[in-house]
Amino acid sequence: MEAGTLAPSESLGRGVPVEYKRVYLWHWPIRAMHWIAALCIVSLVVTGFYIGKPYFMTGGEPSDHFLMGRVRFVHFVSAGLLVATAIVRSYWLFVGNKYERWRALFPYHREDWSNLWLVLKKYFFVQPWKAPHYMGHNPLQQLAYTSIYGIALLQVLTGFHMYGLAEPGGFFAVAFGWVGPLLGGTQIARFLHHVLTWVWVIFLPIHFYLTIRADVLHHESRVTSIVSGGRYVRADIEFVDD
Amino acid sequence: MYFPSTHAWSRQETLGEHMERRGVSRRDFLQFCGEICVMLGISQALTPRVAEALQNVRRPSVIWLQLQECTGCVESVLRTADPTIGDLVLDLVSLDYQHTLMAAAGDAAEAALHASMEENHGGYILLVTGSVPLEENGIYLTIGGRTGLEIIREAAEGAAAVIAIGACAHFGSVQSARPNPTGAVGISEIVTDKPVVNIAGCPPIGDVVTATVVHYLTFGRLPELDGDGRPLFAYGARIHDQCPRRAHFDAGQYVEEFDDEGARKAWCLYQVGCKGPATFSPCPIFQWNDHTDWPIGAGHPCIGCTERHFWDTMTPFYKRLPDVAGFGVERNADLFGAAAAIGAVAGVAAHAAATGVHRARQKKAGIPLPVVPDVGGGAPAPSKPSGEEESNG
């Protein structure tokens, strides 16, 4: 369906017809980035917790097994892929539409900051009708997603630092050697890397819940927007960032 | 085997002459020089050059200061059951001042120190074990009525090279662990105007000290150092990457307790807190006590003693990760992480339940709709879009 109005179907016929329009939010690189990153993060969390505490063990001769070796391989490949998506995302901060550009990373206008409070109240069932409508990310989403980028960045830095230990003088040791001393030692970097993994375990259920809730409760077509790129929204509603 | 002799190395004779007098065969001496080349990571083809340089060396003046430390490094470096030529070299060069070993005491010892420093000004090698306390003007360490800070400043001023031996001289070791009551610091923080070699470890391997001194005697300069002042020939690779138990790590075979089946089979000590993955040291290769064994070989995890501030960052020694400070030893990071994750899921569930109740009450009160309804799902209420209804976001 072209962007524009969606003719109300009389056949549904349960009341007064409503005008709809389709807005295109996320270009395909953003959607591809999202889903590749999602797979990488799941893979990184699962393999990361195994590396942190190997919960399966093998028996017999060590030459017959390469369990930790394979798990680490998957972990490193996923990390590389995640960084690749981050590079695409960073590039798209400068060439994307207004919902994708760097200004959309955080509440930019003063109005957005006051709206942040209203959105926060909405989630606690306090005057939910006062919360404004956003086409792209609302201020709370902006802060949450930007923070999660920051968490990922910290984990990438500490991870690459540890990765570099295996080859002193190599690229990763030279490029990320400063991370350990800056944090107070390699073990502190290791600790941060490990602890921050829990942020993803906390983030994922909340992320699933809130997006699915928005679709189920408010028919916002948020989930489809990260699959198809667009949303259907009612034409008669004001959007702050339209 | 070479035992300490009453025939001291005199100023007139070269090391070669002295070794001959002590009964060291040419074959043994060349073998030693070859071993040193291997340790330093230089070509075997340079063995004759090392041998030539060493045998022509006249007795260098070496001053060994012991500051805030436990004498363990002296034990590690000098006391062995089977002294090698390397120990002999160190024995021989450590002559001018070493307050634990020297015969002189009190004023006589201090006089020897000053005489040597004046006579060889600018030419002596300064070995230091122990840290320097800085709190309250350094009064936590005084020798002969002078603070460690004064002593090290004076001794370093005329030294040709400064070699800091052991974790104390490296960064302050256990006395600099939090809260560091005496303000202990390593030698490289006091001596900033000339390169300080850190022979890291608690204690370090004697062979590394020997090889560093031989490197200096042979080439006239100190070996290449890493970012923390440690010689790269010794501290250039991780224990984890040189470990004879590495195959068990990659295979997924770990010791979980010190008396379990894995421990008997010499599996990887990763899960009982081995810090090999974060520690740069030649222990697996050089080993200890005349190359017989080392901690991991004896079934004990590495505690990371060659790394700066290991008492703070590598503890608890038998756990992989540091504990969260201030919450007691039983509550570690994973417990908090898991609790927060469960809290998040519980919060989501509670919020979903609250949403259900909220909607039910809205329906009961006749408040119709979410803002974006199904087509024909009810009255759109276009006249009051900010009415008593839940909004999207």
Structure, explained:
The complex is a heterodimer of chains A (242) and B (393). By secondary structure, chain A is mostly helical. Helix content of chain A is 60%, strand content 5%. Chain A folds into 2 domains: 28-56 and 65-95; 109-242. In chain A, strands 1-2-3 form a 3-stranded antiparallel β-sheet. Chain A has helices at 28-52, 67-95, 110-123, 139-164, 171-176, 179-183, 186-218, 222-228; strands spanning 5-6, 20-24, 230-234. Chain B is an alpha/beta fold and 393 residues long. Chain B has 16 helices and 9 strands. Chain B has helices spanning 15-22, 26-40, 47-55, 72-78, 85-93, 106-119, 148-157, 166-171, 206-219, 232-235, 239-242, 246-251, 261-264, 283-286, 310-313, 333-364; strands spanning 62-66, 97-98, 124-129, 132-133, 142-143, 146-147, 159-165, 184-185, 196-199. In chain B, the strands form 3 sheets. In chain B, strands 2-1-3-7-9 form a 5-stranded parallel β-sheet. A two-stranded antiparallel sheet of chain B has the order 4-8. A two-stranded antiparallel sheet of chain B has the order 5-6. In chain B, strand 5 and strand 6 form a beta hairpin. In chain B, helix 2 (26-40) crosses helix 3 and helix 2 (26-40) crosses helix 9 (206-219). Chain B is elongated. The N and C termini of chain B lie far apart (83 Å). Classes of the chains: A mainly alpha (242), B alpha/beta (393).
Chain pair with largest interface: A-B, 73 and 72 residues
How many helical stretches of chain A? Answer: 8
N to C succession of SSEs of chain A = EEHHHHHHHHE
Strand content of chain A: under 5%
Strand count, sense and barrel status of the largest sheet of chain B are: 5 strands, parallel
Q: What summary fits the major beta sheet of chain A?
A: 3 strands, antiparallel
Number of helices of chain B: 16
Helices and strands of chain B, in N-to-C order? Answer: HHHEHHEHEEEEHEHEEHHHHHHHH
How are the strands of the largest sheet of chain B arranged? Answer: 2-1-3-7-9
The quaternary state of the protein chains shown equals: heterodimer
The domain count of chain B comes to 2
Shape of chain B: elongated
Low-confidence stretches of chain A: 1-14
Q: Helicity range of the residues of chain B?
A: 25-40%
What radius of gyration of chain B results from the CA coordinates? Answer: 31 Å
